[in-house]
Amino acid sequence: MNAAPTLPGQGARADDRLAGHLAVLRALRPVLPRLWLLLLPLAGLTALGAMKSASAAATVFCITAAVMLQFAWWMVGSALFSQNHPIAARLVPGHVRCLRETSLAIVGGLSLLSGLLIHFAFGAFLLPVMGAAVFMVAFAMTARWTNAWFVFWVLPWLGWPFVKESAVWRATLPVLREGFERQPLVVSALVLTALGWALWRMFQDGGVAHARSWESARQMRDIMRLQGGRAPRVPEGPISRAMVRTFSWGMPPWREFLLRRAQPTPDSVAARAELAALRSLHWIGQLSAASLVFAGMLLASVVMHRTMAPDVAMRVLQGAMTGASFGLMCALLGPAVGLGTVLHRSRQEQALLVLVPGMPRGAAMNRVLARRHMVQFLCLWGFGVGLLAAVLALLPDMWMPQRPVIGLYFAAGALPFSLMLWRDWARQHAPGGGTIAAMVSGALLLTGAGFAASMTWGLTVWQVIAISAAATAALGVWRWRATQRAAPFWPVGRHAGD
Known about the structure:
This protein has 498 residues and is mostly helical.
């Protein structure tokens, strides 16, 4: 009787191990087309740098390429963790080990490449390698523990200015710097070894805990996946329900207001239909969440002014407002990016809503919906720009010349993409990751172009916004005429195959 076969990762033949790694890599093929989209911001920002000098273009290329490698790991890492299924981990021999080894090889290679790019730009090597590895492992933690998104990608932006001004950090930083300067290779090896061990342990090998974390991660992927299809299921639990109620506090009063004022007119019916079709992307929901975030920022600034020295509080606010302004505008303009996803998920509701008495039909439907979508976008856009302008006017010392109001530049870059709301929705396919990535990359590219124009020709941010608004208005005339000739918008995607 033959002996039991040797399992991969436990003394198996090299060709079996190689076959396992190749199977993991073949499963990554759907990610490859999206990786090519990262070349768009790389080429655009490098071209902007070339307008100044060849050295500036080389520096911009190295920095942008290092950042794009992080996005590449986000895509590849998500695909790797999606392969770590609890059933496959328990029943497929050597599967988890192949995932672990592949992820270590990819993170190691991307970290070394990032270090080389930053070395060409600034001369440092080991620190950029460790920094790139830290960011990649932090993303892996968010893929493993979904609640870690807030810990790793929100708290650092808000808490780093406080930590930087604390006495503990000021006492610890010289010790860390001295240790690294004395033994850079030893410190780098220890840090990278710890990060590699942490990444290795994030891939689970089956069991009840693995199944529970897999289900939680799957639900979070359904919520964050920007694709058409069935509506995602919101994670259950008292904390999740409380957060949904808190950040959508304006939805119930607005719904009651619309029901009390209900009339069989096109605008009244369309306003009520949008509550069912747009779901969480409705403008009142986004405005409710943004108002809470802004109120929290104001409360934090008041607490800092009362509990910290004035100069320290001002430095903390200066460090936090740059990222906060960008985050605020991203949150407000996010519905324009995700509108296609939500409309594709609510097509069944749209098929019923078009039968409601008073709902406009034909070209009238396109006019009403196009006008309402654009007005809602401009209200959110104007709310964010107005808040930043008010802060800029009331607290001018908060903005340092070397730290521009990046949120306003992003508002200028994102404004032309509001015309994507006037697409031919009847022929719109289910949006995929490539479409969303192209829109986001284009907005970031225009943001960089606006900032480069300010640095090159001395334009103010308000002049950049005015130029963007004029270009958007000129293109809007053409798109408005196209919407009148298009088929009725709802139900979305019914002519996508024509």
